[in-house]
Task: inverse folding
């Protein structure tokens, strides 16, 4: 029985180490801040029955055995691990907790307007405006008739020429997106632009 527990612990730690490696390889910083809907893996050394993978609830909390509900959103994985460890040490000895991000779903970007599937999409490092348009199923109008703007959370608005971005996708015309950016794609009215 002891051998099975040691094997389970070794597997959990190996998985969490691998996940942490993937998280950093995907561009996450070591001081990544957790948010709602993120999927995290919690590994508890010497207590494999407490090692698990869970999703942070929309209200930013998690429910953990022997600890209860606690807020995870707004903390780094290291901070959350320290808080879990302190709470578990009230009842158990020799506790070490590691928290890693499996899927960072709180990193989002949004697109509305002249695309087939407007909505919220997962942000990926290095994502550009046309990447988001492609995820949303493509444009519903000719590029020349679409006015694009990127609204950032700090209030800045960046204009984007869709035709230029399509012609030169590696140029600055295909603007880079940041977490929580909103891409607005307004289709111009063809009748209003006609001359008689």
Result:
């Amino acid at each position: 029985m002891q051998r099975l527990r040691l094997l389970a612990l070794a597997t959990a730690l190996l998985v969490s180490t691998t996940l942490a490696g993937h998280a950093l390889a995907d561009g996450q910083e070591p001081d990544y801040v957790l948010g709602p809907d993120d999927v995290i893996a919690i590994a508890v050394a010497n207590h494999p029955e407490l090692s698990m993978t869970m999703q942070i609830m929309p209200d930013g909390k998690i429910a953990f055995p022997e600890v209860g509900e606690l807020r995870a959103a707004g903390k780094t994985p290291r901070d959350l691990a320290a808080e879990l460890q302190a709470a578990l040490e009230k009842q158990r000895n020799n506790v070490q907790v590691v928290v890693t991000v499996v899927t960072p779903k709180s990193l989002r970007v949004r697109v509305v307007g002249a695309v087939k599937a407007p909505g919220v999409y997962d942000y990926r490092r290095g994502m550009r405006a046309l990447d988001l348009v492609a995820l949303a199923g493509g444009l519903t109008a000719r590029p020349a008739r679409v006015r694009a703007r990127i609204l950032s959370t700090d209030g800045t608005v960046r204009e984007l020429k869709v035709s230029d971005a399509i012609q030169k996708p590696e140029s600055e015309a295909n603007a880079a997106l940041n977490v929580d950016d909103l891409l607005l794609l307004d289709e111009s009215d063809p009748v209003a632009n006609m001359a008689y």
In short: Confidence is low (pLDDT under 50) at residues 1-28. The radius of gyration is 22 Å.
